[in-house]
Amino acid sequence: MNIRKFWFLTTVLCLSVILIFPVAGCKGELASEEAAKEESAVEEQPDKELFDKYFSDIRLGSVFLLGGNVNLKEDRNTFLPHQKVCFNAGFKYKNNFLFRTEIFNLGTNDFIEKCATTISSEGSDGLSIEGILLPVGKYDYIIYIENTLVAVLPFEVISYVNYFRS
């Protein structure tokens, strides 16, 4: 094989890998709502009325470490190990309120992170909480307002092997 063929094939292979990986989506099966409720660490039901009073929407998103691109999807609940899990919310309520979040690891039955703060939503349309990197596993992102549960967002961090295998 001559040197031109070698470099041509190497370039084609590299470009193929670069183009295929970003286009390939996560095709893993995501847990249904019923399965997520059964696997959840929280036994109480979220207060829908309180949620509707304070928030227009909440979602989990990810911030890619490479390149700093922000990728937010409301229905996304699967992340890769290099993605920071970020919480985003839109406000309806325009007064101060006590806001608390917890990330619970379902595999180890342990809390990864807890945060409590008084939120001043006056003049603000929403909030975004800096993401953290988590190891592979299943988690619940739990949100409280004034010590009342308003939402449980189940999500999973999958391995690269599972991402490309599915």
Structural class: alpha+beta
The CATH superfamily bears the name Purple acid phosphatase-like, N-terminal
* Unreliable runs: 21-38, 65-76
Tally of distinct domains: 1
The shape is elongated
The biggest sheet amounts to: 5 strands, mixed
| Text of the CATH class | Mainly Beta
Q: How many runs of DSSP E, i.e. beta strands?
A: 9
Nearest-integer average pLDDT:
75
Give the ordered list of helices and strands.
HHHEEEEEEEEEH
What does this structure look like?
The chain has 166 residues and is α+β, with helices and mostly antiparallel strands. The protein has one domain (31-165): Immunoglobulin-like (Sandwich), CATH 2.60.40. Helices cover 25% and strands 43% of the residues. A 5-stranded mixed beta sheet has the order 3-9-8-5-6. Strands 2-1-4-7 form a 4-stranded antiparallel beta sheet. The two termini are 35 Å apart. The model is unreliable at 21-38 and 65-76 (pLDDT under 50).
Short description:
The chain is α+β, with helices and mostly antiparallel strands. The chain has helices at 3-23, 33-39, 48-54, 160-165; strands spanning 55-64, 70-72, 78-79, 83-91, 96-105, 110-120, 126-132, 137-145, 148-157.
Offer a few descriptive terms.
166 residues; Immunoglobulin-like; five-stranded mixed sheet; four-stranded antiparallel sheet; alpha+beta; 9 strands
Element layout with pairings:
Elements lengths: L2 H21 L9 H7 L8 H7 E10 L5 E3 L5 E2 L3 E9 L4 E10 L4 E11 L5 E7 L4 E9 L2 E10 L2 H6 L1
Parallel strand pairs: 3-9
Antiparallel strand pairs: 1-2, 1-4, 4-7, 5-6, 5-8, 8-9
